[in-house]
Predict the structure.
Amino acid sequence: MTRIILFNRRRVGEVSKMPLKNFLQREDSYTSDELGLSAYEKSLCKYFTRVELKGKRGRKVAVLLNPDITKALEMLIEKRAQCGVLQENEFLFAVPKCSSYYRGHDCLKRFAAECGATHPEYLRSTQLRKQVATTSQILNLKNNELDQLADFLGHNINVHREYYRLPEATIQVTKISKLLLALEKGKLTELKGKSLDEIQDFTDEDDDQDIDSDEDSNGARPLELNSISENVRDEQVCRDATSSTKVKELDRPKKKRAYVKRPWTASEVKSVMKFFGNHITKGKLATLTECEACKKAYHPILASRTSQNIRDFVRNKGTAYKKQICK
């Protein structure tokens, strides 16, 4: 359970409550041919298994499992009766002799304490999810790639672009898995400025052999050729035909409004520092509700500042304070 949470940067509750039937109905093959995928991306389709879960607010989310974890889970299912798991217990990570499940937070906390980390309290689901969301900003991700990452993490996004997209299962196995592998191996900094399509094979030699091994050695099932909709065909045309008018319309950058940063006055800084002093020293982010309360408490000094301005100010001050302490 801990390995699944760490690799997928998934919420602990989503993995803890994984239904047994969802794992048994997992997807082992994906649409990968004729979609403009690289050889490495096609090999990922054979390497990873995808299991769909019910996420926050009823959203559909997924976890990706490598062959080692899949085999471990299959063995776990085989030993359920021997370990005293009740037949009516519907959870994959079931607690013996009752209808409950093991809590992911307890698993993370235990192994974080045992691994010898300097700050084991940071090895939590929330911090790990923030890591993948923030560190991915160093990559040159396109708007639709940011949407794909947000979809995988189960985040809510205001504007969701649904045109010219690969099938969802293929996206998560071939695109998002490359980012997760880079995080796991600590090589994300080597990918600075690259898009998901530009990321190629960066795994260790042993992993290359596992992923690229042929069907006879790893037992991978051949991929079935699924019918491809006209929209998916158009997607490949839009990617490769740089002279196409449609590509120019899609890729044309939107005009940005002229924005002039207005320096914070001494009275504004003093007001915000006084209200959010504890947040800054503890590295805690301010909520928009708290920022609105700050505006009301120091009206009219902060009348010209939005709640988001105040929130960004607190975050930046907290980051600067943390760097100063580290020095």
